[in-house]
Amino acid sequence: MNSVAFILIALLTLAAALAAASLPKLIHAALSFAVTFVGVAAFFFLLGAEFVGLVQIFVYIGAVAVLIVFTILLTRRDVGKDRGFNWAGVFIAIAVFAGLLWAILKTQPLSIAAPPIEALTVRRIGEVLMTSYVWPLQCVGLLLTAALIGALILVMEEKR
Amino acid sequence: MTPTLQLFLIVAAALFCIGLLAALSRRHAIFILIGIEMMLAAANLNFIAFWRFGPQPQPPTGVMVAIFSIAIAAAEAAVGLALVIAVYRHYRTTNVDQLNQLKG
Questions:
Q1: What is the pLDDT of residue A48?
Q2: Per-domain boundaries in chain B
Q3: Which residues of A touch B23 (CB under 8 A)?
Q4: Distances from the Cα of A41 to the Cαs of B42, B44, B45, B46, B70, in angstroms?
Q5: How many CB atoms lie within 10 A of CB A82?
Q6: What are phi and psi of B8, to 5 degrees?
Q7: Every domain of chain A and the residues it spans
């Protein structure tokens, strides 16, 4: 693992996340959100989970970011000013971060350096999905079907 | 110096708190959904980091949990955005401060 790559990806991800959380225009925030998820996918690549990184890019940038942009365009009349920050929210977020930082720095790590691993192939993931994880896989399939139908029913025109 | 587990955890904690900030301090419902998605991504990052730095189990549990978590986050985003559109149709706003009809 390369520390220069780590620092660059961390800076990109956190800067884009801050932009997504603070930009006043919704559409800019949605694009920063997509950049944030590129950064998270790059972290997955850095950690050796290439398949998860690719899934992250497909699902978040291909689907969720496009859905968010479509929703912004559909609710455009309202997209005006999002004025000002709620300072209580800022305070709570900083307090939570301080608590997490304290817990992370206080705990002894499992291992200093990452142990060498054999590459995790898509073939291996497919085998595991079809053997040990077949029930979770079916449940996720059911959940996705239910979410699809539910979303369609929610946005269908009401009959008068 | 290579990045350690703690550095990944700190980045994930920062991402989680930025998501929390977006969910708590913005007024548009879409921003709140963006914040929730960021928090879920931070949790996924933690799963993958622990999988990479921990003892390697067979099957690769951390990766599997992250894949399922991404699928569930996608379902959540679809239903959440449909709810935003449905609320906008009714009230002509997505500002959560104005959606106070159920307030006691």
A1: 85
A2: 5-91
A3: 89
A4: 11, 10, 9, 13, 12
A5: 19
A6: -65, -40
A7: 1-81, 120-160
The minimum CA-CA distance between B104 and chain A, rounded to whole Å, is 22
Written as six digits, the tokens of A46 are 């850095």
Query: Which of A9, A35, A40, A85 should we substitute to test contact with B (largest number of B Cβ atoms within 10 Å)?
Result: A40
What is the distance in angstroms between the CA of the first residue and the CA of the last residue of chain B? 56
CATH topology of domain B5-91: Helix Hairpins (1.10.287)
B18 Cβ under 8 Å from any chain A Cβ: yes
Distance of CA A90 to the CA centre of its chain: 21
Q: What are the structure tokens assigned to A147, written together?
A: 């979410």
ipTM of predicted complex: 0.88
Q: For domain A1-81, give the CATH number.
A: 1.20.120.1200
Which tens digits make up the pLDDT trace of B10-39? 999 999 999 999 888 888 888 889 999 999
Which of A65-79, A138-152, B70-84 is least confident?
A65-79
Q: How far apart are the first and last CA of chain A?
A: 60
